């Protein structure tokens, strides 16, 4: 039965899809050279994955509620593995972009649906701690995917990381299918999930649902798409680090995030959800302000570790609240949260990029710090109603 599947196996599934998103970070120049295109043209591979990954939430949530969350996630992991293996044999950019879009589409169904299943299976009092264990897979993907794929590509070519991750995804998907047994081919059905896309309207009719979608959008705009992705270029352009050094410094974020997954239970017991929102959000604001005035790259390195911890203290509460936003259709609710986060990320990257053009890195980080502080205060007030 799905409820008996170890959380470690869900974390592995999250690792495979998270690694699939981050594996291209060091590979674009090698792919561009091999396929005879420029690096600028090869960046279509990034957008080709991320856009379908976000938009598929519209259908993945209702589909999981109707057909079975773990069942759909398992099939998605298997298809993801096949897409990665096929990518290793492509000889042109257009074909590789198409396969990246396919991989992004199926990968986008995995983490939200497995998280919704965890919420179905675990009482709310234990849910944030369990979700933090599940998120270990995504955190390790952030830490390892870029460096490991870079080393493999350096010694064996850019196609080998696709083969290795594809085989891993097929292995994880196969284990999930084995644990599901006959349930893999039998729809769960029933419940609020039968409302399909109409469940989104149910969510938006609730004041707490609208509040959660709004804070997810702002979370994505200020952090996921705003400050975080530009830290690497800040290190390169302001402090003169090379790309490899900047990548290692930014990876410190994953160390802090991993620390959260280990200490979520005592943190939650000590501070509670509203306390974590306050401490995490306030800490993020202070740390972004420190980035704005950082005198050297060493300060940025220390800030990155603390950012990882504070971000997951803050974001982890919001993620857990999303699992209770629409209990009768959790797949839809968690998918809606992920979609709002993605839309905010897209808007934030455009806004922060404009800020860099008009006022530069340091003032832009300061603006983000003020925005996160206001968001944290709003979240502390709104979390009680949610």
Automatic annotation (TrEMBL):
Major facilitator superfamily (MFS) profile domain boundaries: 6-386
Main location: membrane
Annotated membrane topology: Multi-pass membrane protein
Record keyword Membrane present: yes
Keywords from the named record: Cell membrane, Membrane, Transmembrane, Transmembrane helix
One family name in Pfam for this protein: MFS_1
Top-level taxon of the source organism: Bacteria
Alphabetized InterPro entries for the sequence: MFS, MFS_dom, MFS_Efflux_Transporters, MFS_trans_sf
Transmembrane segments: 42-60, 72-91, 97-119, 131-152, 158-178, 211-231, 243-263, 275-294, 300-321, 333-354, 360-379
Gene3D superfamilies: MFS general substrate transporter like domains
Native source species: Paracraurococcus ruber
Cellular localisation: Cell membrane
PROSITE patterns the UniProt entry points to: MFS (PS50850)
Protein name: Major facilitator superfamily (MFS) profile domain-containing protein
């Amino acid at each position: 039965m799905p409820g008996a599947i170890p959380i470690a196996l869900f974390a592995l599934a999250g690792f495979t899809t998270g690694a699939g998103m981050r594996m291209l970070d060091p590979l674009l120049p090698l792919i561009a050279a091999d396929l005879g295109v420029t690096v600028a043209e090869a960046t279509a591979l990034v957008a080709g994955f991320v856009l379908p990954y976000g938009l598929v939430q519209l259908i993945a949530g209702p589909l999981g509620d109707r057909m079975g969350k773990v069942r759909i996630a398992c099939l998605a992991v298997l298809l993801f593995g096949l897409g990665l293996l096929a990518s290793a044999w492509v000889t042109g950019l257009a074909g590789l972009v198409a396969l990246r879009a396919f991989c992004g589409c199926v990968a986008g169904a995995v983490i939200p649906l497995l998280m919704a299943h965890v919420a179905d299976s675990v009482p709310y009092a234990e849910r944030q701690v369990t979700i933090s264990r599940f998120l270990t897979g995504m955190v390790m993907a952030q830490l390892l995917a870029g460096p490991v794929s870079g080393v493999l590509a350096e010694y064996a070519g850019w196609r080998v990381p696709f083969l290795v991750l594809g085989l891993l995804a097929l292995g994880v998907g196969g284990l999930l299918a084995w644990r599901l047994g006959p349930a893999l081919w039998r729809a769960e059905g029933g419940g609020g999930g039968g409302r399909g896309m109409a469940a989104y309207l149910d969510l938006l009719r609730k004041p707490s649902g609208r509040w959660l979608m709004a804070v997810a959008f702002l979370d994505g705009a200020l952090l996921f798409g705003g400050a975080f992705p530009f830290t690497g270029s800040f290190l390169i352009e302001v402090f003169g680090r090379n790309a490899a050094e900047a990548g290692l410094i930014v990876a410190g974020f994953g160390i802090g995030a991993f620390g959260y997954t280990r200490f979520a239970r005592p943190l939650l017991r000590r501070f509670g959800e509203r306390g974590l929102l306050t401490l995490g959000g306030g800490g993020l604001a202070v740390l972004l302000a420190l980035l704005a005035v950082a005198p050297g790259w060493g300060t940025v390195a220390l800030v990155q570790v603390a950012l990882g911890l504070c971000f997951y203290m803050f974001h982890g509460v919001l993620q857990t609240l999303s699992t209770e936003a629409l209990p009768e259709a959790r797949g839809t609710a968690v998918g809606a949260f992920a979609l709002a986060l993605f839309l905010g990320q897209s808007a934030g990257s455009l806004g922060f990029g404009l800020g860099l053009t008009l006022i530069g890195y340091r003032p832009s980080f300061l603006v983000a710090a003020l925005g996160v502080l206001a968001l944290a205060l709003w979240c502390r007030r709104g979390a009680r109603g949610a």
